[in-house]
Amino acid sequence: MESQTVRDRTRNALIEGLRATNLVVALGESHIPGQLKVDELLSYLETAGVLAADETPGPEGTEVSLELKMTCYAMPEQYEAFIDGRQVGYLRLRHGTFRAHYPDHMASPVYIADTLGDGSFDDREREPQIRAALIAVLREDGIENPIPSFELPERDDDEWAAETSSFIQELGKRQARRARSGRHS
């Protein structure tokens, strides 16, 4: 495989991320709304010192195998991330904001992003958003240039619907009991 420069890899990652979130309007011209071209964004990142301006190939990165456990399907959609049984991340999407915490939900977020989905991801953004969050988590864990390797847990929409229905029924029963007892909260 031909070695890519840091700029090339960053450019490809930007285009792929924009494509995944449906923000690339014309891939042939590789631009996003407002006519900001990806190459102009790369130049800005270089000028700001965020991206090295040199054209030398960067390190290939370290592949890290993670296990993702989905702990809630939606409202919020959330996951716990593990390396060899050790929890290294907690990922949660709620009210259109996706956050990743290292190493668990008690810690401050290390990644925050706005999403198309409100309480669960739009299918086009799930994998790229989780990948970006896991990169932030792995960097916090001390891994340079991490390349997360993971499989998304399968969603069982029928099971989720049954759980949601059960929850709503229980909530209705609680509200009915409160109404009978004169409590209004």
Spell out the key features of this protein.
single chain; 185 residues; alpha+beta; 2 domains; five-stranded antiparallel beta sheet; two-stranded antiparallel ribbon; 4 helices; 9 strands; elongated
* Secondary structure: number of strands: 9
Low-confidence stretches: 22-35
- List the helices and strands in order: HEEHEEEEEEHEH
The main pleated sheet reads as: 5 strands, antiparallel
Taking strands numbered 1, 2, ... along the chain, how are they ordered across the largest sheet? 4-5-6-7-8
Shape: elongated
Number of helices: 4
Mean pLDDT over the residues: 77
- Assembly state here? single chain
The separation of the N and C termini measures: 63 Å
Query: Whole-number radius of gyration?
Result: 21 Å
Helix/sheet category: alpha+beta
Total count of domains:
2
Helix-residue proportion: 25-40%
Beta-strand share of residues: 15-25%
Write structural notes for this entry.
- It is a single chain.
- With 185 residues, this protein is α+β, with helices and mostly antiparallel strands.
- It is built from 4 helices and 9 strands; from the N terminus they run H-E-E-H-E-E-E-E-E-E-H-E-H.
- The strands form 3 sheets. A 5-stranded antiparallel sheet has the order 4-5-6-7-8, covered by helices on one side. The protein has a two-stranded antiparallel ribbon with strand order 1-2. A two-stranded parallel sheet has the order 3-9.
- It starts with 5 loop residues before the first helix and ends with a helix.
